[in-house]
Specification:
Pfam families: Creatinase_N, Creatinase_N_2, Peptidase_M24
Keywords: Hydrolase, Metal-binding
Number of helices: 15
Number of strands: 14
Strand order of the largest sheet: 4-3-2-1-5-6
Strand content: 5-15%
CATH topology of the largest domain: Creatine Amidinohydrolase, Chain A, domain 1
Distance between the termini: 25 Å
Structural class: alpha/beta
Order of helices and strands: HEHEEHEHEHEHEHHEHEEEHEHEHEHHH
Largest sheet: 6 strands, mixed
GO molecular function, one term: hydrolase activity
Shape: flat
GO cellular component, one term: cytoplasm
Number of domains: 3
Family: Belongs to the peptidase M24B family.
């Protein structure tokens, strides 16, 4: 089966699922349920349905149309990769409609627009609902992701082991961080804080993972209250060292239990004589907000962890300094190697991939190397026009 025919088959299967649920349009974001920009293979739904593999973009399939929005970094790549029948919407270009404008233009009156509520933020959902209502359309939460339904060989969610980041690198213990967050929860007047962003969870618990390529994160949720801390994670990820690191302050719960348990805690808090709400970031998913009873159960405000982790302590600053020195040494070594190969040896067979491999080897030979922060962008000549060329 060719790539074109495979894409046609996938879109047709998705439309069949939409029809069975009376959905006129279905939105497929790039992000995962933690609103991560960079995602695991199992969450690459937009790439699966459209063929476009760039890191940013949003796809929409209607009963008879398919469109993808992406930014200027990916115009060339998207035009090459999109399957037959897809229309590339060049975001930011004059005259190109926004998602909302396009939907309001092409859909019949009072259409139902479906989306997986775990893949859209509270803020984005609110804007979309308001825009669609102008033409009588509605946004429908579809609990079972329809791309997952038609993706028969979808990769499994990774369960790679989590490791402890030592105090000499973090500069602050888990208990110190949690107490600082609790102080802010207390000042906010909420019963707790829900944490969904993977980088914030890794920072709070001084843990690192590798569930997403080039990102030291792992799939988890967390709930911090004034008396308890719950980490929702697949326990297969946890070694005895990690469990010891978390005990006794942290209660580990199954990753999939977050929505049911959060709903139960929120319901109990709302039934108290003096009801309290929970603190969520507006970047968290609509599914999480639904679990706590909607807007009435939440106080939306910037996550205190986002702010806290942006303020670096002396241990972290020193880590930055040393890392830049080591990486500069690897780059200098690479430039010297490349010049020797091209000028001294007159080697004209070096490919862009060869160069990237040598640079990674030089970096990996240095102390404290764990992995690359992103896939090396190595391009020459005309390939330099593709910003994320590989």
């Amino acid at each position: 089966m060719t790539a074109t025919s495979a894409n046609h088959t996938r879109v047709a299967a998705l439309r069949s699922e939409m029809a069975s649920r009376d959905i006129n349009a279905y939105i497929i974001p790039s992000e995962d349920s933690h609103q991560s920009e960079y995602i695991a293979e199992c969450d690459a739904r937009r790439a699966f349905i459209s063929g476009f593999t760039g890191s940013a973009g949003l796809a929409v399939v209607t009963t008879d149309k398919a469109a993808l929005w992406t930014d200027g970094r990916y115009f060339l790549q998207a035009s090459r990769q999109l399957g037959e029948g897809w229309v590339l919407q060049r975001s930011g270009v004059s005259g190109v409609p926004t998602l909302e404008e396009w939907l309001n233009k092409v859909l019949p009156k009072k259409s139902k627009v479906g989306i997986d509520p775990s893949l859209i933020t509270v803020a984005a959902a609110r804007r979309l609902i308001s825009s669609l209502a102008q033409e009588g359309h509605s946004l429908a939460s579809v609990e079972k992701n329809l791309v997952d339904v038609v993706w028969k060989d979808q990769p499994a969610r990774p369960i790679k082991p989590v490791s402890v980041l030592p105090l000499k690198y973090t500069g602050r213990s888990i208990d110190e961080k949690i107490q600082a967050i609790r102080d802010q929860i207390n000042r906010k007047g909420t019963w707790g804080l829900v944490v969904a962003a993977l980088d914030e969870i890794a920072w709070l618990f001084n843990l690192r993972g590798s569930d997403i390529a080039y990102n030291p994160v792992f799939f988890a949720y967390a709930v911090v209250t004034l008396t308890d801390v719950f980490l929702y994670i697949d326990e297969a990820k946890l070694s005895d060292e990690v469990r010891s690191h978390l005990e006794p302050s942290i209660t580990v719960r199954p990753y999939g239990a977050i929505f049911k348990e959060l709903s139960a805690i929120s319901t109990k808090q709302q039934s108290e004589e003096i009801p309290k709400k929970v603190w969520i970031d507006s970047r968290c998913s609509l599914a999480l907000q639904n679990a706590i009873g909607g807007e009435n159960g939440a106080v939306e405000s910037r996550s205190p962890i986002m702010t806290a982790k942006s303020i670096k302590n002396e241990a972290e600053i020193e880590g930055f300094r040393k890392c830049h020195i080591r990486d500069a040494a690897a780059l200098c070594r690479y430039f010297a190697w490349l010049e020797h190969e091209l000028v001294e040896k007159k080697n004209t067979t070096i490919s862009e991939v060869d160069g990237a491999g040598v640079l990674e080897r030089f970096r990996s030979e240095l102390s404290d190397f764990v992995g690359l922060s992103f896939d090396t962008i190595s391009s020459s000549g005309a390939n330099g026009s593709i910003i994320h060329y590989k």
